[in-house]
Amino acid sequence: MDGMDMGGTDDHSSGGSASSSAMTMVMSMVFQTDIQTAVYARSWTPHSVGAYAGTCIFLIVLAVIARLLVAFKSRQERIWADKAAQRRYIVVNGKEPMSERLSRDPDAKHMTMVLSENGVEESVVVVERKHSPVRPWRFSVDPVRAALDTVIVGVGYLLMLAVMTMNVGYFLSVLGGTFLGSLLVGRYSSLPYH
């Protein structure tokens, strides 16, 4: 097409290689079915139908692992919450009892009641929380939570990169693995991860 400048250099000046390399660098944003589609590295390019099938099976397994990790983290969160709820708190000498602090707190909605068990009566304060408190940072919980989140996000990004190749087989493999993983352990996961 004469007279149209495609943004490349003129063939008469510095050579036509800059224009042709710029055109090959443009990524096509349409689904394709080429079995020789690299995934993660140029060295991981299937050159046969068997290698392509192996790559698709790897992506299915990786998507299942992603769903397993989400279910595992959800289960761990429930375990950590149960352990936090079962912790016993003790009264320290010289510290003001919580009931006295709560009676002066204008934000706390509370009422005093008497509990009776086996003939022993005890005065207690019943407190209604306005919001759920943030649990304290724990060395036994928070680094494990951070590591799990990092692994989940890393696996998710690997799956996303495979889908971004726009290869139909890779895309269907990730969807199939997600379906299979959710079918296996979806009932254990309370968080809707993508």
In words, what does this structure look like?
The chain has 194 residues and is mainly alpha-helical. The chain has five helices and two strands, in the order H-H-H-E-E-H-H. The chain has helices at 17-24, 49-86, 98-104, 142-163, 168-185, and strands spanning 109-117, 120-128. A hairpin with a 2-residue loop joins strand 1 (109-117) and strand 2. The protein is elongated. Mean pLDDT is 78; it is low at 1-13. The chain crosses the membrane at residues 49-70, 146-164. InterPro entries: Cop_transporter. Keywords: Copper, Copper transport, Ion transport, Membrane, Transmembrane, Transmembrane helix, Transport.
Overall 3D form: elongated
What is the number of E strands?
Answer: 2
Average of the residue pLDDT scores: 78
**H/E topology pattern:** HHHEEHH
Summarize the biggest pleated sheet. 2 strands, antiparallel
Number of DSSP helical runs: 5
Low-confidence stretches: 1-13
Q: Could you write a compact summary of the structure shown?
A:
This protein has 194 residues and is mostly helical. 48% of the residues lie in helices and 9% in strands.
Layout of strands and helices, then pairs:
Elements: H1 17-24, H2 49-86, H3 98-104, E1 109-117, E2 120-128, H4 142-163, H5 168-185
Antiparallel strand pairs: 1-2
Helix pairs in contact: 2-4, 2-5
